[in-house]
Design brief:
263 residues, alpha+beta, Beta Polymerase, domain 2, six-stranded mixed β-sheet, 9 helices, 17% strand, globular
């Protein structure tokens, strides 16, 4: 973890107490605590991922200028979790996926807060705009197949297709997610049982995850609580970010949180 003085300087510059960014971060933390409790109660494995894990290791919490929060889990756990979230989330939070929003464009789910607003830069518009955490499902797949699936999704479900014809977009989405991707999972990937983990078919995130880096899960402090993390966080972060303890020279502040109500 970086030294306390540097951390304090970063906090004062980017997310001081009371700032919109800090309010949004704390609301995301509330969501994470609820999801963590539900996962633990049902024996569902997850772990902090990407920049969230980096923040935990380097800053002891959020990267001061970060405005999102990510967790990952295996696809079988993800499929178990979604119906549980629909039943057990408190009324101030909601599961945002294709079931709750037919125009939702992603192949992963979000848990959103209902009493805040965050801007997202994609063409698909939704009435649901609250602060959120992302839940990414992972599955084993050979990298060439993963790349083919991504290319199919980008070409057939591109925002341009959505703008041209929502019906054509819906057909393409159904074809990929109900026919082509299940075939990839059931048959093609079955011949490569030792493949690395990747985000589920159709996602654009390329970095693989190593089973031996993730399991058995450990725990890490993030802000004022403890959450699940990869067993070898150093290996995970090194492959993803290189020298992850070095602060970036060019810091991009998103500034996309618009308001947060005290509810």
């Amino acid at each position: 973890m970086i030294d306390d003085m540097t951390q304090q300087q970063l906090r004062e510059r980017y997310n001081p107490d009371g700032s919109l960014l800090r309010q949004g971060q704390l609301r995301m933390l509330d969501i994470l605590k609820v999801v963590d409790g539900i996962c633990r109660a049902h024996g569902i494995r997850y772990w902090l991922s990407s920049g969230t894990l980096l923040g935990a290791v380097r800053h002891g919490g959020f990267i001061p200028w970060d405005d999102d929060l990510d967790i990952e889990m295996l696809r079988e756990d993800y499929l178990r979790l979604l119906p549980i979230l629909r039943e057990e989330l408190p009324p101030n939070f909601m599961l945002h996926d294709k079931v709750t929003d037919k125009d939702y464009p992603h192949l992963y789910a979000k848990v959103r807060d209902k009493y805040s607003c965050i801007e997202e830069e994609y063409v698909f518009r939704s009435k649901h705009k609250g602060c959120f955490i992302d839940i990414f499902p992972l599955e084993r797949s050979p990298y060439p197949l993963f790349r083919i699936a991504n290319r199919l999704y980008v070409n057939l479900c591109h925002p341009a297709v959505y703008r041209y014809s929502r019906r054509l977009y819906g057909f393409n989405y159904t074809l990929l997610t109900r026919v082509i991707f299940p075939v990839f999972r059931r048959w093609v990937s079955a011949f490569h049982p030792k493949s690395d983990y990747h985000h589920t078919f159709g996602m654009i995130y390329k970095a693989e995850r190593k089973c031996e880096e993730i399991f058995p899960l450990s725990e890490v402090t993030f802000e004022d609580a403890t959450f699940y993390a990869p067993h070898d966080a150093h290996g995970y972060l090194s492959r993803m970010f290189g020298n992850y303890m070095k602060l970036p020279e060019d810091i991009e502040v998103h500034g996309t949180i618009k308001w947060v109500n005290n509810k």
